[in-house]
Automatic annotation (TrEMBL):
One of its GO terms (cellular component) is cytoplasm. Residues 12-135 form the RWD domain. Belongs to the IMPACT family. SMART domains: RWD (SM00591). GO terms for biological process: GCN2-mediated signaling; regulation of translational initiation. It comes from Neocallimastix californiae. This is UPF0029-domain-containing protein. InterPro entries: Impact (IPR023582), Impact_N (IPR001498), Impact_N_sf (IPR036956), Ribosomal_Su5_D2-typ_SF (IPR020568), RWD_dom (IPR006575), UBQ-conjugating_enzyme/RWD (IPR016135). Keywords: Cytoplasm, Repressor, Stress response, Translation regulation. The lineage of its organism: Eukaryota, Fungi, Fungi incertae sedis, Chytridiomycota, Chytridiomycota incertae sedis. It is found in: Cytoplasm. It holds the Pfam family RWD.
């Protein structure tokens, strides 16, 4: 990795973006320390658009794209990002449904795969603004008219992990539903496939009251992802984590790599874990990181902790391939599992 070249490319990109967008659209993110985080703020729906759609007493809606520049960008990894879009409807705080954020994330990853090694934030912004105009406006207007937009609820916990306590089946089903993995948990189980052994971090990473713990399991089938998640969520403490982000990577017949991930509301975290598994060339493994938010924003540090706690546990169990300097990673055909 060329650290200095990456730094220069990032600085040049920020200068270019600053020259294109006004200071109220693109600006440093003051919620996080340092100069590695920037925010784009886009109007999604204006007062005039609400009037033209016969919607009364509705404040303008904006979408914020928070970008965190990693040292490995753009040579190895894309920027980390968050997407925030919320509004108030009849006194109720509403957040944009996760499925629409996933559509945006998919568009971003397609751009990164096409331009890997080059700066891509401008392309991301163009794709996002196109999506807002082409689809998102109509989606939100329809949602408001029907008055049934979904809310996003996050449960925080600052306590230390305790011994597992079984949750009820209804609680478990709700947690699985919230994590958008019903396709994993409901998939047919091949005959003879058993729940794999699950390993968790012996010591957590704790930073400013936030706690991070990793869990891994050897797997051979995508079906086992749901089995492992369901088993982990039987622990009430894990089930109440603010986020349970995960990724998996399976080598199938012919060397085809089947991989997938889920953010569980921490946008970019699933991709971070998936990228880690690819970089260390880990195969036939599932990794989840549970985070309990401590009330203090960590900024991009949280992604470092997610990666570090996962890497530590993967290394302890022999999944890290310690390659010699200059050795090239093995090339594989890939396929993405559908959720």
């Amino acid at each position: 990795m060329d650290v200095e070249n990456n730094k220069q490319l990032r600085e040049d990109e920020i200068i270019v973006l600053s020259s294109i967008y006004e200071s109220d659209v693109f600006y440093p993110n003051k919620n996080y320390e340092g100069d590695k985080s920037y925010t784009f703020k886009f109007p999604v729906l204006t007062a005039d658009e609400f009037i033209s759609n016969d919607i009364e007493d509705q404040e303008e809606i904006y979408l914020e794209l928070n970008i965190f520049f990693q040292e490995t960008y753009p040579s190895e990894e894309p920027p980390i990002y968050e997407i925030e879009c919320s509004w108030t409807e009849k006194g109720i705080d509403i957040s944009l449904d996760e499925k629409y954020k996933k559509i945006i994330s998919k568009k971003f990853m397609e751009i990164w795969n096409d331009f890997k090694g080059e700066v891509i934030v401008y392309e991301w912004v163009q794709a996002l603004t196109d999506y807002i105009e082409a689809e998102l406006k109509d989606i939100i207007i329809e949602s408001i008219k029907k008055n049934n937009a979904s809310t996003t609820v996050k449960v925080s916990s600052n306590e230390e992990l305790k011994s597992p306590n079984d949750s009820s089946d209804s609680e478990l089903d709700e947690n699985l539903k919230a994590m958008h993995i019903s396709s994993f948990s409901n998939a047919p189980i091949p005959e003879g496939v058993e729940l794999p052994e699950i390993f968790s971090s012996a010591e957590p990473i704790v930073d400013r009251k936030s706690v991070f713990i990793a869990h891994i399991a050897p797997i051979q089938y995508v079906t086992q992802v749901g089995m492992v998640v369901r088993e982990l969520l039987k622990n009430k403490k894990i089930a109440k984590a603010t986020h349970n982000m995960f990724a998996y990577r399976i080598e199938e017949e012919g060397g085809v790599i089947n991989e997938g991930n889920d953010d569980d509301g921490e946008h970019g975290a699933g991709m971070t874990l998936a990228g880690l598994l690819e970089v260390i060339d880990a195969r036939n493994v599932f990794v989840m990181v549970s985070r309990w938010y401590g009330g203090i924003k960590l900024g991009p540090d949280r992604f470092k902790h997610i990666k570090d706690i996962a890497l530590q546990l993967l290394d302890e169990h022999g999944y890290v391939q310690h390659k010699k300097k200059g050795q090239q990673p093995i090339k594989n055909n890939k396929k993405k599992s559908k959720k």
